[in-house]
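Journal club prep — side note

Before the paper discussion, L.F. wants everyone to see what a predicted structure for a comparable chain looks like in token form. Sequence:
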Amino acid sequence: MSSPIVKLIAQRVALGILLLLAVSVLIFVGTNLLPGDVAQSILGQAATPVALENLRKEMGLNDPAYVRYFHWLFGILQGDLGTALTSRLDVATSIKERLWNTLFLAFWAAIISVPLAIILGLLAVRYRNGPIDKLISGFALASTSLPEFFIGYLLVFIFAVTFPILPGISTVHEGMPFLEKMKAIALPCTALTLGVLAHMMRMTRAAILNVMQSAYIETAELKGLSAFEIIRKHAFPNAIAPIINVVTINLAFLVVGVVVVEVIFVYPGMGQYLVDHVAKRDVPVVQAVGLIFAAVYIFLNVVADVASILANPRLRHPK
């Protein structure tokens, strides 16, 4: 690997680390600006002023904000995500299983949505301006126009209420048989898939159509190659960089954007865990989950940048 590529990748990684640091500051400031008193919410309205003051001192709430931030940051760097205020359990231990559940759901949504989006994008290009292209584009427009919560409730109404063939509440647990787990995540997985499918499909179509205007595509047409062969052998390989980029960004959304879907289907993942503890004003949990979501999103965006650099010669040699 040549030096310019290593330099570009190092710049992207360094930028990602700086961005994550900036996001950690925003998360800390945002959670500390939440209304109400943490000590009061833990001890209740009947707590005495002495008890409240002792709890604030024990939790370090009387320390300056910058002291609490660096204490929190250094703890995270050592693998300590803090202790939940409501349950007094270690946050890292509580998050572990829920993070696995979220990644499990996002993985299967990606397995379905990525190949399907690319295939639909290729079909739309192959039959562009025809009935198939218009049908696919119409589906993409409808899918993009509907918010995730509406899609989720619609799926519940159809497949769990009207035709009760799938569970409306996606309960999964350790040791659950694989097929039962797949049945439990069928509806939330479908909602997530519909949420990202349209964007990936439209970007795939746009990237390939952009390549189809190139001179070498005209040469391939003059040689008598079929439209399918031109797309498969010439257009798709040269459009792979932007496709990889948009796929990776949507994978980041699958992990980070699960909050609404998990709440609708009561799925025991990170999103549901976050919403539950926002309601309880459990600041350490909110900070930890927010930082994990930010880290995953930034990491996958860095991966998208690096993949684009490696797949596109023009980015590897900007001069």
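L.F.'s comment for the group: The CA atoms of residues 41 and 70 lie 24 Å apart. Keep this in mind when we get to the figures.
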